[in-house]
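Response to reviewer comment R2.3. The reviewers asked that we include at least one raw input/output pair. We reproduce the pair for Class I SAM-dependent methyltransferase here without editing.
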Amino acid sequence: MADAAVRLKRLLEQLLGVPLPVRIRAWDGSQAGPPGAPILVVHNRRAVRRLLFKPGELGLARAWVAGDLDIEGDLYTALDLLAGLVWERGEDARSLAQTLRDPEARAAVRGLLRLGGLPLPPAPPPEEVRRPGHLHTKRTDKRAISHHYDVGNDFYEIVLGPSMVYSCAYWPDPDSTLETAQRDKLDLVCRKLGVRPGLRLLDVGCGWGSMAVHAAREYGVSVVGITLSQEQAAYARKRVADEGLTDKVEIRVQDYRDVGDGPYDAISSIGMAEHVGADRYLEYADVLHRLLKPGGRLLNHQIARRPQRDESSYEVDEFIDAYVFPDGELQPVGSTVAQLERAGFEVRDVESIREHYALTLRRWVAHLEADWARAVTLTSIGRARVWRLYMAASALAFERNRIGVNQVLAVRTPESGDSGMPLRARKWSETQSR
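Raw output as returned:
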């Protein structure tokens, strides 16, 4: 009799101590769990072994990327339900990883071992990155950036749409187009920085050139954009040429630590600082401070995590680190502000746009799902599954306030104390582009 789903459900509930909120369909066709709930499809016994040999988030991620696990029904609902078991069980409840290591749970573990078949650890999917640690040298940073961004410009065009902006958009309302929201975000950055003709802007982590093109075309500023990705740089240079802006915009493959032609009047860093690393953040802030003229402004747009009571216990997200952003590290916004001020900046404004990123990510997921077959052809089935999972899970993380995103505006205020900021700085909320 086909009963793998029943046995799997019973053993998992025995380990976790709570009912499973999703329905299970196992490799033998059997089903168990609440009717009408999203279905966790366990395609093979290997999925069980992955969970046993790497309990918790990474084991589940490996099973997902390899296609051993799937979800039928609403992806966001399923992830939200599973998050309560894997990531958010609270201070008084054990995580799945802790439970599977508990001596009292050995009977259930033995049952899962029998259900999973041969007790051999499956090899990780080829999309998983192996690295020596969070070194954040120029060499390791370049390799990490290449892993994430050199997936293929055609793939990113599917996900990001025509704007080719890979950071949080700024939505006038939820029903706006992604292109409108991304244009509004770039315009907001330009207004906060106060760029105008005759000024020089350094765009750190320029991506596919969207900020550089917008600032040069709409505000007449001269821009140097830097990235560590060869594919991004080639794409950005073509965009600059197509826009007729080669006299205004230069795109370089360059580490921010190697920029030597300052000072600049303004610096934008949009979605780049997450790659810097906690141990290197003061160095990052020092470099940008040195590259700015006195009175120059920095706009630092960065994802932040929630602070913990015991910061020493913070651990990097295993799935994100292994499959998405190798060596990426999130810091609380307070830590970012403190490090910028230690470097000599005067922080003038902090704006949280957390809900905007959730809207952005849901649009990206919809783009990927709508052109799934082509996305798989351009990369691999595993890579496409990585992106779908991480973007959907990230959307929920922003919606549930597990992570946030902030624009921090800082000034290299001169000794005279004249910051050059208007008395009512938030007039930038009004559209002022030419």
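The radius of gyration is 23 Å. Residues 4-116 form one domain. Further pairs are available on request from the corresponding author.
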